[in-house]
Amino acid sequence: MYSSLIRWSFVLCLVLFSDCKDLLELSAIVPRYAKLGETVVLKCNHTVVENQLYKVQWTKNGDKLFQYIRGRVPPYINHTIPGAKIDWGQTKPSELALMDVQHDASGQYACTVTTESPIYSKTSESHDLTVIKIQSTDPTIEIFKEVFNVGDILDATCTSGPSKPVPEITWLVNGRRPPDTYMKPIVKTALDSASAMRLTFPVSDKLGAEVHLTCLSTIPGFINHKADYHDYADYRTTSIIVSVAAKSEPVTAGCGKEFISIVVVAVTAAAAVVFKT
Ligand SMILES: *[C@@H]1O[C@H](CO)[C@@H](O)[C@H](O)[C@H]1NC(C)=O
Ligand SMILES: *[C@@H]1O[C@H](CO)[C@@H](O)[C@H](O)[C@H]1NC(C)=O
Does pTM surpass 0.85? Predict the structure, then answer.
């Protein structure tokens, strides 16, 4: 009932007006990332009813990739798809299933829908698909000591496992992302499919006696603190705990000099950088 209503208003609209963009709505539903070897289903989500649908065509980076024409025998042309094979079992007029995807299948996909009578075409926006080779190992953290005094410079490096594209690395200190100025990407020779990030900052007693350092190595890069591993196409993490030594100034009862030195330490610590919450 509802679909025949859409159909008739669509036909009427085409007859009376030249611009029916509001009635023919379409969008290409393309997953942003796919893992090497996976099957991905690209959907051309449109409002054209089946018996008004004449043609559905997919393009990749602007080149014709796949075409369905209703009534033609066979209705599909057996195109060669760069970096994938068509999964005929899951392919439908408005759904293109690509199996065993390889890096060459990465690109911008869009679909065009054509109605039968009168003939009218509309093309969706294009969407990126990136085929990724996920990391085979967790990232590794290198650090030269695990006990720090307040004011020491903590210096640690995290290196990802290999992947394509290379993952992005973010450090979390006690679960929070430190300011960008504390993190520097480092280039390691012969590191063509991995990435590395150095973290350096002065240790403040505001961090507590135990500091949790976490390295996230993800595709795409850090999203936000609320994101969990489901929100990433590839997610690997490694954590360590370092300790901050208790202050070692000897306190002698009644000795004013020691008291002053403790006050100085406290003021210095308060001036040290405190991570934004
Ligand atoms: C498909 O298109 C309809 C109408 O334009 C829209 O309401 C719906 O959200 C789309 N579905 C998806 C999964 O994007
Ligand atoms: C397309 O080609 C493949 C392999 O060459 C074949 O298995 C399949 O049946 C063909 N499909 C169509 C619709 O022609």
Answer: no
